[in-house]
């Protein structure tokens, strides 16, 4: 192979096999599949989903056997990947990787599951493919997030601060690694697929993310579908841009740390470094948890007596904060909005879905509380947030009452973050909560059973067929 910064990643993706994977990585991957399927189900009824279900007609792919949730007829795998990735991204409830600023499962799992459904791939091969994609995509994102010469255990999320939306811009690199592994492609073919994706990567704007418009999910949809196309082309001998990392990455950020591309490759599994979301969105997870714990410890707070709420948090929470959100996505990133909803009595489950529906956002009862919230950057908390591996994810809340009393609480993380991993039961509970309103109890049970035994299945397509059995 050529002297290309992405070549070691391509060779790694080509060579990875299920038998090499530690038990904990296999278990994490099964849970990641279940989690992303839950988000796809939820996203299939989110704002914009009705229009997205018309994608097969736009692309002329209306005939096919591949499942698209919420659609009575099947389609082609690439269209299914596009639609499901867009669905998942619309929910902001799957997973992220703070040090890489990517959403691995959002783009990789829809593509792999669609390809596996078409080919009848074995479950163990699907697991290995997903891990290959995760390991590659996280390292690509990390290379753009870390500034050379700064301490190894820090990241700066450069592309995010430049106005890009990295989960979409970079997502296809993980998709081609995963699908190349599943298809048995050589490292050279995967490198060509990476080079082709680099040439067409969706330069998705952070503005769509901050504004919460429907267009935001399209970036991840395009990344997932484009990755499938690039893999197919590479398999037929189609060549891509060489030295693609040196051509694309400097256009996205000021400084690239190319050494991160191979850091711990084959030795350390970044698949275990995810931020899995059980409420709101990544940057405000600890803030939400902090308010819940304050109420659990001190009891309900009389909101009429509150004069000010000071929240000490990380830089990303401030960057993405909209104190007066008008859309569900913007609300999930709004510290003032989320904390107001918790103070109004929302449950932890309600902070996954119901709190971010249009009727709740349009109800102005949260605005007086949100208006009392002051978000503050805590430099030490931010260093912890951007540490590699994450040491803590702190948040501190101080509520001033009109009689001079103060209510204060601090947390160092929240369930689902690397320092506080969620147990399997939490994933299953989340899946049931999000999916059962959209399926029968028996169908939910079947999907959970299949996903939790994914690596034992002779035909991994059973999972998506079970998801579509109630269409």
Structural class comes to alpha+beta
Report strand %.
5-15%
Total DSSP helices: 24
CATH architecture of the largest domain: Orthogonal Bundle
Large-scale geometry: globular
Q: Would you identify the regions where 5 or more consecutive residues have pLDDT less than 50?
A: none
Through-space gap between termini: 46 Å
In spatial order, strands of the major sheet run: 4-3-5-6
* CATH fold node name of the largest domain: 2-methylcitrate dehydratase PrpD
CATH class of the largest domain: Mainly Alpha
Q: What is the residue-mean pLDDT, rounded to a whole number?
A: 92
Write the H/E string, N to C. Answer: HHHHHEHHHHHHHHHEHEHHHHHEHEEHHH
Radius of gyration, in Å, reads 21 Å
Question: Level of helix content?
Answer: 40-55%
What is the β-strand count?
6
For the sheet with most strands, the description reads: 4 strands, mixed
* Fourth-level CATH superfamily of the largest domain: 2-methylcitrate dehydratase PrpD
**What number of domains?**
2
